[in-house]
User: What shape does this take?
Amino acid sequence: MSKKKAIIKWTAVAFVGLIISVVSFAYWFLSLIPPPVVAKATLRQTVTDDLPYLAENTISGRGKILAVVTSTAEMGDSEKTTGYELTELARAYYVFHANGFEVDVASPLGGTPPVVIDADDMREYDYAFLNDNVAQQKIANSLAMQDVKPDDYQAVFFVGGKGAMFDFPQNTHVQSLVRRYYESGKVIGAVCHGPAALVNVKLASGALLVANKTISSFTNEEELLLIPDAMDVFPFLLQDKLMEKGAYFNEGNMYLNQVSIDGNLVTGQNPWSTWSTAESVVEQLGYIPKRREITAEENTVAILQAYETGGYNKAKEILGNHCSSNPNAIDRELLAVHSLVAAMQFELLKAIELVQLLSFSNDAVINKSI
Assistant: This one.
């Protein structure tokens, strides 16, 4: 055999070996994610009566909160579709509802706003929202911002969704309502891209609302990982704009829970901050949030937070505590996604350790069931 043929042969063997190794790893990696305890088909049938947080020990009579969503269906000229994030509206809506507030929905244009539904992120409260006739009627007939009566509400909550970057900042009705609420002491909440509603608001003094305020929102790092050409797609990056306007930007770990409270201003970094942001709004309104069962997704975010602050062993300890009491108390799919995100960022040690945590959680499930 000639030297050239030998090189080709062994190159082919190495390539096939690499392919086999990658496929084998993929099968092993996927095997670490057990099928969901509740099948998606069943989850899709969830209604509010199925959720003790909403069905038991109900509270009412505390007034109304206005939730504002985007009317934008396309990201500029990019031909990329967008809208409000259903999970961010659904979870905040039910926190407010469970704590005794009626919730109305508004949008810059009114009517039925465009929605983003990510099947991978959908959980029981999100499907309950889709099956909630009252909530769906409010969405289908959202109030136009120009028709909102500010005195009707105790607080406003700006829901995220990338469309908010295009129609929240320049909307004069949004600006007027935010200025009025801030100066009268009413609570203003916003999550993910929702803080885009704040960037151009000027107070009666002429000062920018966000100047010298501690604010969280979707970060540059989070934006650019998902949309590498975000600087061309959006009119601005939200973190950059808030800082340009004088805000103290409070950045948490990527895709984990982060909430900032500055007086009557409550802002959250991303979709995984929605529960905490909404409950912080309730607290700022003077109430202790109603107790609810913490979701598997939230437990997993807490484990990932522990990894960032305390390292692998701390995260493993918390993970073990959850799995020993309830093997289904964590979201293994979310843990897997974060390991892939770490790999995408070439944080190889982190990726490996998160896979190890995933494997550890899988062993705990198996041992618990034996």
Observations:
- The chain has two domains: 42-284, 295-370.
- The chain has 16 helices and eleven strands.
- Residues 12-30 have pLDDT under 50 and may be disordered.
